[in-house]
Write a structure and sequence with these properties.
Radius of gyration: 19 Å
Organism: Polioptila caerulea (Blue-grey gnatcatcher)
Distance between the termini: 51 Å
CATH class: Alpha Beta
Helix content: 55-70%
Largest sheet: 4 strands, parallel
CATH superfamily: NAD(P)-binding Rossmann-like Domain
Strand content: 5-15%
Protein name: BDH protein
Structural class: alpha/beta
CATH architecture: 3-Layer(aba) Sandwich
Keywords: Membrane, Transmembrane, Transmembrane helix
Number of helices: 10
Strand order of the largest sheet: 1-2-3-4
Pfam family, one: adh_short
Family: Belongs to the short-chain dehydrogenases/reductases (SDR) family.
Length: 214
């Protein structure tokens, strides 16, 4: 693969692959955590390492698909943890690549669930059937149904304008002066990130707890 590209040049790499799911921490087995880390985090690292020699040689671009969920979580902590990890990997890589003329960009979309279909609607019955006996002793079906309804409502509110994210990716790849981060999100989503970044954690926890209680 590398020998093939080395004859024609190599400019850009976009790490876009990702999977998502919903569930409180104890609801998900260790195998699911491992799968998410492997796809969302290690998958991007694998492709980056594979193409790094060519990207350095041709002073190319590396674009990573993160999410505003790297800053906070609303029932999908497993997805948020992988995006937060990608952010830190990119921060290190961006600084290291400056001396080679390679630019590293992060795309941070808001809720585009209707565009990407990354997460199908969740069935409370399916979630309940997969819970361990220990978790079933702590929670009840009504609570699981409430959480599923909440998360499904978030999915249904997702933007259908996926082209907005694609435009950011194109800009990151082709602009003479690409941004380090492209936050492509609605105003209320940006406001949540703003609160998370600038206010004490207790404030953000109160905001998210209120949202989760609705």
């Amino acid at each position: 693969l590398l020998s093939h590209f080395s004859s024609i040049g190599f400019w850009g790499l976009v790490n876009n692959a990702g999977i998502s799911t919903f569930g409180e921490t104890g609801w998900l087995p260790m195998e699911t955590y491992e799968k998410f880390a492997d796809v969302n985090l290690l998958g991007s690292i694998r492709t980056t390492l594979a193409f790094l020699p060519l990207l350095r040689k041709y002073k190319g671009r590396i674009v990573f698909m993160s999410s505003i969920i790297a800053y906070f979580t609303l029932g999908n902590g497993i997805y948020a943890m992988t995006k937060a990890a990608i952010e830190k990997f990119c921060d290190a890589l961006r600084l290291e690549m400056k001396k080679f003329g390679v630019q590293v960009c992060i795309i941070q979309p808001g809720n585009y669930a209707r565009s990407t279909k990354i997460q199908p609607p969740l069935s409370a019955e399916e979630i309940w059937s997969e819970l361990s006996e220990e978790e079933k002793a702590v929670y009840n079906k009504e609570y699981v149904q409430e959480r599923a309804n909440f998360f499904n409502s978030i999915l249904s509110e997702g933007s259908a304008n996926g082209n907005e994210v694609v435009d950011a990716m194109v800009h990151a790849l082709t602009s003479p002066a690409p941004k380090a981060r492209y936050m492509v999100a609605r105003l209320k989503e940006k406001a949540l990130v703003f609160v998370c970044a600038l206010f004490p954690t207790v404030v953000m926890d109160s905001v998210l707890s209120y949202a989760l209680s609705k």
